[in-house]
Amino acid sequence: MHDDRRTIRFGELAVGDVGIVGGKNSSLGEMIQHLGKAGIQVPDGFAATASAYREIVSANGLEEVIRSQTSRLDTDPDALREVGAAIRTAFDAATIPEALAAELVASYRALGEEAGIADLAVAVRSSATAEDLPEASFAGQQESYLNVVGADALLAAYRDCVTSLFTDRAIAYREENGFDHLDVALSVGVQRMVRSDRWGAGVMFTLDTESGFPRMVIIDAAWGLGEAVVKGEVDPDRYRVFKPLLVHPGVDPVVSHSLGRKEVKIVYADPRSGGESTKTVACSPAERHARVLDDHDIVALARWAVIIEDHYGRPMDIEWAKDGDTGELFIVQARPETVQAQKGASLVRYTVRDRGRVLIEGLSVGDAAASGPVCVLESAAEADRFPDGGVLVARITDPDWVPVMRKASAVVTDRGGRTSHAAIVSRELGVPAVLGTEHGTKLLRDGQMVTVSCAEGDIGFVYEGEATVAREELDLGALPTTRTHVMLNLANPAAALQWWRLPADGIGLARMEFIVNEHIRVHPMALAHPERVDDPAVRRSIAQLTRDYDSPEEYFVDRLAAGVGALCSAYHPHPTILRLSDFKTNEYAKLLGGTPFEPVEENPMIGWRGASRYYHPGYRDGFALECRAIRRVREELGFANLIVMVPFCRTPAEADKVLAVMAEEGLVRGEGGLQVYVMAEIPSNVILAEEFCARFDGFSIGSNDLTQLTLGVDRDSEILASSFGADDAAVVTLIRDLIARAHAQDTHVGFCGQAPSNDPTYARLLVDAGIDSVSVTPDSFVAVKTQIAAAEVG
């Protein structure tokens, strides 16, 4: 492909023009040409072509300099710095041919005239002809400049972009990826700036960047120019949107809003001052605690992301900006996502055992874990003292750090989010990274042996010492199909998407109390009635946790709805069965603010728990918050696949009380397709099976409590451990009896107890009894699925 033009307007370009204008510019032209009619707004501009770059190289005799210098790397890879410096010096001494300079300025003036602004502010971005390919991102290898104003500044920025094709990091990247230095040319995009310095900007992906889950749009947002997000200078907000429900009218499937610290932002500097064109300033307290985008903008961006993904036919990495003057949203860049999109169908899981105490935590990137000695570096210039296999600890990273990151077993940073440079490169390298720890460089010390784990969900941990890290690869293509539904027991929303590749039939048991304990941490009644919390220190802690919400109640509802929504999304439209809260009184009392609301019981296991709490004045207002969150998940987010399950319901009369309270809170069984299940964990649930069938849509057998109450054995007793077993004849008889009687009433029966996870052969017993579904822990899914398939065959 050859084109002699020096400059081309974006609107004349298409995705096939990578050889002429590079990946970034060809993609901008593609979107302007083909996606404008879908409402996607892309700021206009023009590209200085690869031909223009080659004109500079030819006019200044730079080809021989490039060839002779880069050939040194064949025999002396350590000469990288000298090679890069020599080539850049030659480019700095080169002149831009007069005709090329005149055409660049003329194209810039024409862009300004169309905007009605003489000296238009533009972004000047590098766009290499081997950049933003599906198999290689070249993320951040060349320079970009923002708020460039005036013809002289434009030419200076253009020269700097061209020279940046030979930064040390860019040379090293091409060497490692097998690109010839003379075959790669540099185009430069000149694009009208969006006044996001007066609002915000960020990055979005059309899949979950850590798990590869393809049905979620992930949006990172910060105040000011998006450069702060990409460079990792700021910990941004993060919004998750479930793609399949975007087409449903009347729902806003924004599954979660996570507020970032957003301590700084990048804004315009005065171009007449002669200094930098942008500057970093502190965000106000109000900005730090406010969302950058409301749900309307989040959904609009997510819909654009889906349109862009569908157009390109692959997962995409997209930069967006919101103009503070007009309130308009814009897409300023789109490139293929290059990490998760290339992973195969197999599922690789890491587990960490024998770990030490937690030293620090942050955002996890990837799902791996690794151990190594800490090496704290202040700058990439200290790379010479970094050991192979060390754990890199730094404030932030930029492309200069890549050679160090290639040697690292793991990365830890003080700043940065999941779309920062550190995150992008760590994913490409397959290196676990814990980002935004805030104090990692201060708390970790050189030579200290640590284990960095990103195998436990959204939160990454740095553990003291060398833990045992196990890697397991599961071949999911060989799994058989089964008549019996095999579902998952899941509790942690942060980890739910890690298992999406398992061909499960839904989530058979989602434990609400995990979300309350880990993501809310406050007793529901303390949020419904904060005036009843006497301890001033506890009240301050609650106020700190809920400071970003209009009310304490909204804090509970929003965070619970986000957790449940994440679980519902993992296997949608298959069901997610959410067990309502089933803390015991001693467990509730440990929640922040819980002591005033909980009695001291001699035997909490058979005390005030489960269904008996929901209608009782001592917890009725807390249960109302649970119901509000469930309504939000089903009605506002649109997850109609959510099934509610009542635990530890002792009698049909108690069932009636619970269903009545739920109805008062807007959860009416049968309305809007709402199904309500009951746990079968008390012998009375089996003895009165027909009466429970009349009140509920299904049973889920909890084998631990059913065994405990059938045999009269404390399930936690070490002395009586040998007497406790779900395979006891009495327990098995109850299970068989329940299944037969429930099926006679056309009522579903599932099994969510631990027995099949601990012993996959137990699944054979359940299949023989006619069970409809079995729910197991993810790590035992393959074994149980295989056992069930064999049992069904006979």
Layout of strands and helices, then pairs:
Blueprint: E1 7-9, H1 18-34, E2 45-48, H2 50-59, H3 62-71, H4 80-93, H5 98-115, E3 121-128, E4 144-149, H6 151-163, H7 168-177, E5 186-192, E6 200-205, E7 216-223, H8 227-231, E8 237-242, E9 254-258, E10 264-268, E11 278-282, H9 285-288, H10 295-312, E12 316-322, E13 329-336, E14 347-353, E15 358-365, E16 369-376, E17 391-394, H11 402-407, E18 410-413, H12 421-429, E19 433-435, H13 440-443, E20 449-453, E21 459-464, E22 468-474, E23 485-490, H14 493-496, E24 507-511, H15 512-520, H16 524-528, H17 536-545, H18 552-570, E25 576-579, H19 585-589, H20 611-614, H21 620-636, E26 642-646, H22 652-664, E27 676-680, H23 683-687, H24 689-693, E28 698-701, H25 703-711, H26 729-744, E29 748-751, H27 755-758, H28 762-769, E30 773-776, H29 781-793
Parallel strand pairs: 16-17, 17-18, 18-19, 23-24, 23-30, 24-25, 25-26, 26-27, 27-28, 28-29, 29-30
Antiparallel strand pairs: 1-2, 2-5, 3-4, 3-5, 6-7, 6-12, 7-8, 8-9, 10-11, 12-13, 14-22, 15-19, 15-21, 16-20, 20-21
Helix pairs in contact: 3-4, 4-6, 15-18, 18-21, 28-29
